[in-house]
């Protein structure tokens, strides 16, 4: 299995190299050259298997010859053994044929653990096999950073630097990053927004001198292995709900287009997904694109669902690559124009293709609080604000009652206790393994939104650690 860049001018790589490389050298994102397809029989055969076994079967074709099968199977089993729910990603029925898939039973209580834990184990394995080390640099709107730190902490072959927007992540999110005391973990608060953090990260990737000097690698959702780990639960849900020969729909709280792109990937692989509801908060650049055909960059609004406070959805480029017929040069041109003008307009054909798969939905903070309160009153369910947007979206965009709708619950309510308490009067407690989080000592640095400052900091830290 080979991976090619969405911008068409970086070398094709195998799975292990695409994973270690993260962002392609031409600024593009890696996508598989060809897609495996699962037959209805193969999907039906997943029913009743445990999560790790489904994960192995669904992802194995993407690994190709980069890992031997027995080794890969052991890594997958080890990965999902750390999740705290027996089912790993349990389904709960909210209303007749409307399901909630709980993706918050990992170490940091957000769906990002489901792929990031796999990625941490894969990185560790490949680096050790090659006798190499890397510097992982990531940007986070809150949940990626803690999930990445939990996946990389204490690993000999990696240092990890995480940029987060100062004052724009929740206390729980920040503490999950800043209270980890392993020497290879470096949390950095940037004076700016998440998009600023993401731009700094892209600039560091595109500074090839710096990139080589520190052996930089990335675990943001631009990394193909993240998408890979997220494809799994779409199959798990479909198999559990008997949707191998009839349709199934998903509602996905969306920011960077990573999670929902994995749903689109599952559809390409043969999963009979009728539609994917792209649910946004007031940062509605993507739901607007579906409504109008034009993506227009705007200012980021801080909301109660900060992990979706994004105006530059990096993973959209992977989908654009398909919309533009796999023409890397056109993707490069289109992205360059978007960079300059802040506007990207889809052709009528492309927009209609997008609308065949995706349905937009937007909910502001007031609506989010109402949804949390409504679900608590109706069923005693406590939803975090991101999951509440997904639930509202699933309820609003059910076109056929016979088609199961699965709303993805992307975070545990205790990760965003202020919003949950505001809506319901209940402050959800943290699970036992994080119960003393608020008493742990924090350790982080504050830096200006300035490329040279961040690069200098990374160099200094690595020099102190005597690894570069
Ligand atoms: C990251 C995140 C999202 C958005 O996911 P994308 O893959 O960026 O679209 C939604 N909800 C929560 C809780 C998250 O952590």
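^ Assign residues to that structure.
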């Amino acid at each position: 299995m080979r991976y090619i860049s969405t911008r068409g001018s970086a070398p094709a790589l195998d799975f292990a190299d695409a994973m270690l490389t993260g962002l392609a050298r031409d600024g593009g994102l890696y996508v598989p050259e060809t897609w495996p397809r699962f037959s209805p029989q193969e999907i039906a055969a997943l029913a009743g298997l445990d999560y790790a076994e489904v994960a192995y079967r669904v992802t194995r074709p993407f690994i190709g010859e980069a890992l031997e099968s027995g080794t890969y199977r052991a890594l997958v089993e080890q990965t999902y053994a750390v999740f705290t729910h027996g089912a790993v990603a349990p389904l709960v029925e909210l209303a007749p044929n409307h399901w909630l898939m709980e993706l918050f039973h990992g170490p940091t209580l957000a769906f990002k653990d489901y792929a990031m834990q796999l990625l941490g184990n894969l990185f560790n394995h490949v680096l050790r096999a090659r006798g190499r080390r890397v510097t992982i640099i990531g940007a986070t709107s809150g949940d990626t950073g803690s999930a990445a730190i939990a996946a990389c902490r204490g690993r000999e072959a990696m240092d990890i630097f995480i940029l987060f927007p100062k004052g724009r992540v929740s206390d729980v999110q920040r503490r999950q990053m800043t209270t980890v005391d392993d020497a290879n973990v470096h949390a950095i608060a940037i004076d700016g927004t998440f998009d600023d953090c993401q731009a700094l990260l892209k600039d560091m990737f595109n500074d090839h001198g710096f990139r080589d000097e520190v052996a930089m690698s990335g675990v943001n959702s631009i990394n193909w292995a993240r998408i890979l780990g997220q494809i799994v639960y779409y199959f798990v849900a479909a198999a559990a709900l008997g949707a191998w020969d009839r349709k199934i729909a998903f509602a996905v709280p969306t920011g960077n287009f990573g999670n929902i792109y994995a749903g689109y990937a599952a559809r390409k692989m043969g999963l009979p997904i009728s539609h994917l509801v792209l649910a946004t908060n007031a940062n509605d650049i993507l739901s607007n694109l579906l409504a109008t055909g034009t993506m227009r960059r705007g200012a980021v609004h801080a909301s109660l669902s900060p992990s979706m406070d994004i105006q530059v959805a990096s993973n959209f480029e992977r989908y654009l690559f398909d919309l533009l017929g796999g023409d890397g040069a056109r993707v490069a041109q289109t992205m360059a124009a978007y960079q300059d003008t802040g506007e990207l307009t889809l052709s009528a054909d492309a927009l209609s293709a997008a609308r065949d798969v995706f349905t937009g939905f937007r909910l502001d903070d007031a609506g989010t609080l109402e949804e949390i309160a409504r679900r608590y009153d109706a069923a005693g369910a406590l939803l975090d604000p991101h999951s509440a947007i997904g639930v509202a979206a699933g309820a609003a965009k059910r076109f056929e009652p016979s088609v199961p709708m699965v709303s993805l619950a992307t975070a545990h309510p205790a990760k965003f206790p202020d919003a949950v308490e505001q809506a319901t009067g209940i402050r959800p407690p943290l699970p036992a393994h994080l119960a003393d989080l608020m008493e742990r000592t924090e350790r982080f640095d504050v830096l200006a939104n300035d490329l040279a400052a961040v690069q200098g900091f990374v160099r200094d830290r690595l020099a102190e650690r005597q690894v570069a």
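The pocket of pyridoxal-5'-phosphate is lined by residues 110, 112, 143, 221, 253-260, 307-308, 386, 410-411 (CB under 6 Å).
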